[in-house]
Amino acid sequence: MSKTTQAPKALRGVGNFIDDRFHLAKMGEKNLRKVFPNHWSFMLGEIALYSFIILLVTGVFLTLWFKPSMVEVIYDGSYERLQGVPMSEAYASTLYIDFEVRGGFLVRQIHHWAALIFLAALVVHMLRVFFTGAFRKPREINWLIGVGIFSIAIVEGLFGYSLPDDLPSGMGVRILQGVILSLPLVGTYVSMFLFGGEFPGEDIITRLYMLHILLLPALLLALIVAHFMILWHQKHTQYPGLGHTNKTVVGTPMFPAFAVKAGGFFFFTFAVTAGLSAFVQINPIHLFGPFTPTSITSGLQPDWYMGFLEGSLRIFPNTLDFDIFGYAVPVAVLIPGLGVMGLLFGALGAWPFIEQWITGDKRAHNVADRPRNVPVRTGLGVAGITAYGVLWLAGSNDILSETFSINLYLTTYIFRVLVILGPIIAFIVTKRICLGLQRRDRETLEHGYESGVIQQLPSGEFIEVHRESSDETVEILSSKPTITSTALDETVDDKGVESPESRKGMGKLRRRLALWYTRDNVSVADVEAHSGHHLHHSHSTEEQDKEPAH
Amino acid sequence: MTDKTNNDNNEPDETPERVVGTPAAEEHTVAEAEAERSHEGPYKASETHQRPEEQQRRGEKIASLWFILAFLGGIGFLVSYFVYGPEEIADPRISQFSNALLGGTLTLSLFGIGAGMTVWARNVMPHYEVSSPYDELPSDEKEKSSFSAFFMRSADESGFTRRPLMRRTLIAAMLPLGIAPIILLRDTGPLPGDKLKVTPWADGRRMIVEGTHREIRPEDLAQDPYGMISALPLMHEDDYGENVHYPHGISLNDQAKSVILLIKMPTGEDGQVEWGEGMTEERRNWTHEGIIAYSKICTHVGCPAALYERTTHRILCPCHQSTFDAANAAEVVFGPAHRPLPQLPIGVDSEGYLVSTGDFSEAPGPTFWDYAKD
Amino acid sequence: MKWITARRRHPLAGYVVVILALALFGVGYAALAPTADQAQARTLAADVSSQDDADVDVAEGRDIYDQTCATCHNYDGSGTTNGPDLRDVGPAAIDFQVSTGRMPSMDPNAQMPRRHMVMSEEELANLIAYYNAEIRNGDAGAPIPADVPGHAPDREEFPTPVRADFEDEESYEEAVEEAEAAYEAAIEEYEAEFDAYIAGADNTDMGMKLYLTNCAHCHSWSGGGGALTDGRWAPEIHDASPRQIYEAMVSGPGAMPMFSDTVIEPDEKQELISYVKTLQTEPNAGGPIDLQRIGQVAEGFISWTIGLALIVACAIWITAKQRAHD
User: Fold this and answer.
1) Boundaries of CATH 2.102.10.10 in chain B?
2) How many CA atoms lie within 13 Å of B10's alpha carbon, on the beta-carbon side?
């Protein structure tokens, strides 16, 4: 190993050139020393970032040939099957990319797969942050930015899906227009202005194209940059462990190891996307045929991230629709089409502040929660996933009905019930599981872990030998935070008088929520760690091995 | 950020008071002078685990193998580009090969680089974790009050708060400019007017089988006791003006709102159709010899609702499964749609062709707020 | 199981379980999804051309009818509570129902899936001759479109000779070769007929419009089928021969509406059938794995279970703890 401390001359020259102008040496070193905690779940956001980069690069390639025009032409390109078919220029130019540009088909498929993976990575990253409480102070703003990225990414994906003007994509636009039309008072105007007249008109693809390649990516890029600058400034959260505290972060430094790992990870992400695109056909627009407003196919589906909206459109009953002075209010379109989306993003955005309000916890948190230690939040998260999942499945009820030979209407009824019951059951079950895990943790902390070794005592009794946990485990288990809320301790002052705040409606509500939020948790405050008095022995003694199970 | 540099410096001896009491900090403060001297990496010896030379050498070999594989993949990708020319890939069979070849070599190349880098980081580089303090996020009181004093003094100096006339006129001056971008969007489209309610269907317009340009007569459906066909209005040269030509003879906008489903209802023993209760006398007059015409566009969000089951005479929309009863004025029997599919009054012209005798009974397409108003 | 016990506390054990679970999920999905071209071979049922020949046996047709059809459709074809009146449906309907194996049905209340035809080509011809002679009301219903290619010849119609019937090895082998050659010739003839029918259509736009506006809402853009109400379904039409598609259009089996030759004329039907048949044999330009052409549901599924899962597996490799630190 060479022990160079002096940089090579060329590098030094460049470095000096830059430093002379920007005074970067100190800041540069600080940033190269930036510490990143090691855990695979901390790399989920990176998948999204890398997918986004892949999307930008492949998207630029596609714009070289794509023509965002709805002028109807008679196709005379080299794809034989569709020759002589009238279609929009947008569709014809997509066929051109597929069948006349070498590598065009591959790049289009990479673009589509990367989009699906981008959204999927955003979701899992968001779930990781939610379940570990990484959205808490001081990271609430970054959480909000993340919610913004997620919502814009969905719209961005929908618009991109609409551009090739093939049969399913045109139906997506049609449904979008149908939802816009349902808006009371302004629906018809918004639709006319967006489409430049009636559906489908001749402008919508040009406009969606502008939004898809310019405005929305610019917004996404800006938000992603902001997301990263904040992350960089505040540093990453970390899971509990030895030396991991709210004041100190432990991990791999940026340079050299983390930079190489993150670089390698980019290539992995790209490789998987490219591999899928090479062998798995996605969105075969040349098979679908061009869009016409009169054609339709069974099994029509949006891309997966729009599935929950499709599902809510399918299962929402029409019984709440009403007329007022002869004007229609199609609730069955408004609520699933717009309300569900608003509810999802509203709830996501508001949750950090709701939780803070319930617990009154104003401290900064850098150590992530283990999901089991915050059962109510975890339960709500799983309930949310369940609701989302049920709606998502409902979006493919016709395919489920056909595949499993279930009555189509019956699937709708089942989903209507499930979307209410599912989250409730999921919440209860999750909370119970969390509490069970907490109890097991407490037991492990008290008695060590079950070694799987069965021994027979001289008395004939069988026991499973418990071994002492590692220091790391003890640290993780004993650092379990106690969940409390200020709402529960400030209500009654020394004289036994209830504070005026807690007597008001909001105060009462807060107190009730705080009770619900903190109830049932298992405390480890009074537990003496099993290995506590043997911490410095590296081998367990024979007596410990034989210590009976409790 | 820059003025925080001191707080964020990783040098252990600069941050003792912040990390006192934590295990990691304890390790920092115990200076193991000897170990320090024997290790010249950027981080303390106590934190680093140097790989054994043997492992490093093996790691180097494996990483290099991956990189060679990636190199070959990359070369393969470049070569694949020229294997099939642009004329050949128009054949979907060749296109599939070309796509798999290009994508496969690209995947190999990318994966090789990723794997090589991972092996490099995991086997050649020393393995360690270091600790570093989180920044103290709120500024201390002194800094805050200094900032606040400075800001208020400067704001006062600007006179913005003390000169209301100037302040208000400035706000007033900004307002029109703020509204301007919204106003500028006005020309993105026409006002709705009656465009969503009026279609090309009018008294005496013939209809054609969609996809062909053949006009339909009632006899054509006579052989179909359970017939159904998707149809469009027959447009004439002068409908669109002289220089406007559409490949199908009808604009997409007009297709989208005027497409109909012609259904031949089965007749019972007495030769009469068993209509449902919703079929008023007026609506029955809009049919012809058991042929009834409905708008094909679903009143929910506008998919073509064309899934007609002859046994149950249901019309189902494949998008969201709104179901309408064709024998009963297309009343909704299931699903999210709220109002029936509009019915088109039809009859026969003097030459015996099926024609519309007026426009739809209601505005076709997705329900909008004033669909029921004239 | 000892090795599991020993390893279940390994730091990677959890990941292994997750990956196994995902793999199981994937395999389960693959098993549930309908297999492609499952019934490709079954498509090759016998050619119907023999029915035009004079050697049909109406008497045998009656026997078949009385044994297999009359229980539900009554001896005079007037129908019972278990089966509809056949007198007006026409021979196209009979040919369609029997040649797709849907009739005779075991359960009159259930929708029948496509099966291998239960009788031979000759028996079907006899049955139809009997139907035309004795049951059909005049010339009610649609006739069989004889000029539309039916099924490819069935291997079973060209039985391999049995060794015992021949005296010596040589003559036996000759007979085997002959049977083989006859089969191949029949296939070739059928293919030529099929290709000529498909090539006879030249207006893709018309075929596509007719298919996408009148058929795709049930049978899907790819001919993969779809769900109907009350637990019924529109079958996939990959295995249907051009003639069966034609017959289905003119006879309206099950809940399907009818499209008679005056509504969609024979040459227009040819365009439609050619469009869907060409589409079905179209190679998948985007890759050998076509996800059954189900589309977005399958794509979303793959992006999660294969795409994201593989990338996360890479992340686990990158960040996995190493011995030196334990």
Assistant:
1) 205-356
2) 23
